[in-house]
Structures are given as C-alpha cells and as structure tokens.
Amino acid sequence: EAQANDETTVRRAYLENYIGPAYNVKFIFSEVLKDDAATKTFIENCADAGADAIIDFKSMSGQMCQICADNDMVYAISGNYIALGSLFGTWLKDNVEADGTEGYLIATGIASSGNQQHIEIGQGILNGIADKYGLTFEQDIADLVTVAETTNAANDKGILVTLYPGSPNKETWLPGVSALIQTGQYNTFLSAGQTYNQSATVVDEVEKSFGIDIKVASVGALGQTLTTAFNTKDPFGNPSIDLATVKSTSVLTSALFAITYNAPNGDVQTACRGTDGKPLYFEFANMSVTSAEQLAQMDGWDDASTGNWCATTDVVDGMLTIVNP
Predict the structure, then answer these.
(1) Rounded to the nearest 5°, which phi and psi values hold at 219?
(2) Which residue has the higher pLDDT, 158 or 33?
(3) Are 119 and 79 in contact (CB under 8 A)?
(4) Whole-number mean pLDDT of the chain?
C-alpha cells in the first residue's frame, strides 16, 4: 500500500474478514511503503513466507514484477486510469475561472516513480487546463507529469501552473505543499493522490488570511474522512473539498483478487491474459462527487462495520474459473 487512508482500511477489512474466510485464503498486508526499497523488501519477505501472489498498489514497476517472476509469484497491479484523469479534466472545464487569472497547484504524487494512477490523473489535469484556455505547454505533457522536482509548467498563455511531486507519506510533503499554498498564488489545488485531509488546515488558513476561495480537487475514498470534508464549510460557505473522485473499493479489489486466484489454479493463459497474450484488465467506473448530498446517496456502500459489500461473493464467483469456467 502507498498510503494509510480510508480506502486501505476498507480494502483490508474486505479481504481479511470477507474474502479470506469465503475462499480459504490468507492475506499478508504491508505497512505504508514509502519507496521502492521498502516495496522490494516486502515482496521478498512474502516470497520467503510462501506467498502465491502479490497485489501491488504502490510501485507498479517492472522491477517488482521481475522479483515476483523470479519467485514464481503472480504479480497484479491496479491498472489503467485514463477515465479517472478525464474526470478531473471535465471538472476543470466547468468550475474554474475563464480568464485564467487563478493559479494551479498540482500535486503529482509519485508519478515520477511510474505510478500509473498518478500519471494518468496528472495528464488529465494538464489536458483539462490546456483545453480550457486553448494553451500549449512548452514541454510535452507526458514529460511534465513525471518531473521529480517542483516545476512551473511554462505555457503560451502565461498561466501559473505548478507541479509539485512527491509522496504524501514523506515528512517533507506537507511542509512543501503548504509553503506553496501560503504564497496566495493558487486558487485551485489538485491532487493525484488522496491528500485533501492533509492539506485542509493550510488551505483554510490561507483562505482566511488572503480572502481567496481555493478550490480543492483530489482522489477520495468512501468513508468518514470524505464525509467530514464535504460537510465542513470553508470561510466562503463552500465544502472544504470541491471534487473527489471515488470508486467502490470492493469492486476493484475483487477483480484483482480474482485474477490472482485464477493464476495459481493453472489458468494464467485462459483467465489472466487476453487473446493478444497481454495481461487481462477488468474495467470499472470511477465517479465524481461534488457535494455532501451526492455523497450521502452512496451511504452504506462497502461498509466494513456492517459487512455490506458492493462486490459480494456472487460477483467474485463470476470471475473465478473454478466456479465459472
């Protein structure tokens, strides 16, 4: 896992308390993995413990894949996020100032380390800004989203667009992003990771001291943290977060579990690869949430306290070759 948040808590409860007993499977869960070295050590320890598969929500790298291959373990990652990036782009077109006077601060997370979700979200945001103002960045967008240090993305409209890379798990992340927000130059803060709760205090302080309404858009997860954020008002009477992209944690997790369960049962070629021989992808919908009322309509989804899961064993069975050849 890359972060400790509501999503990882729900995912663990789903696997440990629901999927594990249902399919007689044992799971080993990592702590927050701050870098590739920690991820590598965790995977090697799992191999020593006799694990059959790794589901990687952190690195998504060829190096980790090779380690798994060398130890006869299945390697699964949390796929492609093109649609998720477009949710940010669409929101930008409809919710930011048309004159381009507001500055944009974009936390690109660990895109520089190859994290596919963060790359796709970063590209979706920059494409959304480019489409909104008809601007052209001096550097290619694919290169910009993977910068390894704070970078102002120069463009032909002179609009301030700053990319701030780094893992929110590191001690330097929050002081760095806070220093940028405290300049008062940014009216829109967008994040490729789930960081709205970490930045909430500094955003509120800057809104009060500068008298500016900072729009916040971030990846989110269904849970109390997000509910609190939407029900907390900023100095202008708006929710403390303006956009959160969410998904059903159990639906995503069930698909990854099914792939890794099918493979050790001898179905790598038939159930884990497409006709082109490439890894199989399960697709599911991410959703945009922009209000407390909209979020309330999802109340009870993937509720660990009640054991109410969107992806029940009936859903999982439909993906398992031992049940549905």
Answers:
(1) -65, 140
(2) 158
(3) no
(4) 87
